[in-house]
Amino acid sequence: MKDPKLGNDVPKLYTELASWFHLLTAPAEYAEDTRFYGDVLQSKCNGPLRSLLELGSGGGNVASHMKQRFTLTLVDLSPEMIELSKTINPEVEHIIGDMRSVRLQRVFDAVLIHDAISYITTESDLRRTLDTAFVHLRAGGAAVFAPDHTRENFRSTTGCGGHDGERRAMRYMEWLWDPDPDDTTYTHDFAYLLRDSDGSVHVEHDRHVMGLFGSDVWLRILTEVGFDAEVLPFDHSKAPSGSDAAFVAIKRIQVGD
Length: 257
Ligand SMILES: C[S@@+](CC[C@H](N)C(=O)[O-])C[C@H]1O[C@@H](n2cnc3c(N)ncnc32)[C@H](O)[C@@H]1O
Description:
Layout: E1 2-3, E2 7-8, H1 21-24, H2 31-44, E3 51-55, H3 61-66, E4 71-76, H4 79-88, E5 93-96, E6 108-113, H5 123-135, E7 137-145, E8 157-164, E9 169-177, E10 185-195, E11 201-211, H6 215-225, E12 228-233, E13 245-250
Parallel strand pairs: 3-4, 3-6, 4-5, 6-7
Antiparallel strand pairs: 1-2, 7-13, 8-9, 9-10, 10-11, 12-13
Helix pairs in contact: 5-6
């Protein structure tokens, strides 16, 4: 479904173009993030960290590294992305679900929402999503949320990239811009050049509408949901210093837990 201003309800990258996702962003590119967030979760978790729920697990790129350390359960809204993730993580549990509302009726030692949290675009949906993380954590468990941007570190930028596969290849240009600095979204436009196995190339435009919240909003909602939360600075080797920030949240152990 497409609205010319709002973009697709679900980006083409997660539906009809899902099979190209690993050529846009390859699993190997997620090793540094995974190591960092895995170490943070392990150090913040009160007690052993064995089970980890990842919401918005996408193509399973983070999971392909995280599964070396923890027993994973992966949830994503897109059946196509779940199928793609299974190709590189066949041994891992996969569930189709919406991070705003899914209820698995069990708890985990840790919850991770990596870049998928960027697809949450309203404060009320952010609250619902953080609540999902809270109800799936055991007391003393830890969660990390890693939005692509916060209001403080967002800059309008362009970039390009892509990868060669065995038979197909992809290159892309991306353009991040904020049509209305007073609302809680920005626009991430992509142009994909998709080269098929027969050498033909076609071009697709895909608009991703992304959420943008200040750190104060993040910390307020995390606290209202019941977490003890703090900003987690992350100096990624491939990003300018100060351009990445995430949030780490602990589910406090209450007397009687
Ligand atoms: C950038 S991809 C995530 C990539 C992932 N970090 C990885 O390691 O492969 C974003 C994912 O968020 C998912 N997503 C967006 N909104 C969602 C929601 N409300 N509930 C669950 N998944 C959602 C999309 O289907 C997509 O697979």
